[in-house]
Amino acid sequence: MTNYLANLLATSLFAGACCAAEAPAAAKPAAARYTQATGSGALTFSFVQAGAESQGSFKQFATELTWDAANPAAGTLKVTVQVPSLDTQDKDRDEALRGADLFDAKAHPTAQYVATSFAKRPNGALEAVGKLTLRGVTKDLRVPLTIKPNANGVELSGDVVIKRLDFGVGQGEWKSTEWVGDDVKLHYSVPLVPAK
Question: Residue ranges of the chain with pLDDT lower than 70?
Fold first, then answer.
């Protein structure tokens, strides 16, 4: 019995020493957080109207990015757009776009894209995996993106095509694609700086 207790005590001490000797796991560095640089960036859109391409932009939007190049899946992206800030350089068209049959900017003054992760495409390109909420409708949307370091932080850019009718942007006579196409091309380019 004495030998048994001695062996048990020795085993316990040896196990404790081994555990104490193990180095603690290195903590993973936190992903960097970025916000849109004040007064910067471009969010433009283009669509076909009466057989010709028309262009516009949103003058007011905000971007938040969490990014770790070593772990893209842990990244997040949030872009919040002030819909009434749309501008196509045509007052009458802008008023129509803000109206109830199209963007319905009065009832839905903001649009938002929220990505909860990033993924690599088969060709190695990066894409955000998230959801777009526009005119009160939320749909899954994967957005191809490029994230490049710059002197002050990172530059985020990308292009994607959405179907306006999927989000109800086109009621009444605007549901027809005879004069206004269903496809809307979005282009996004914005410099981001470390969040404070």
Answer: 1-29
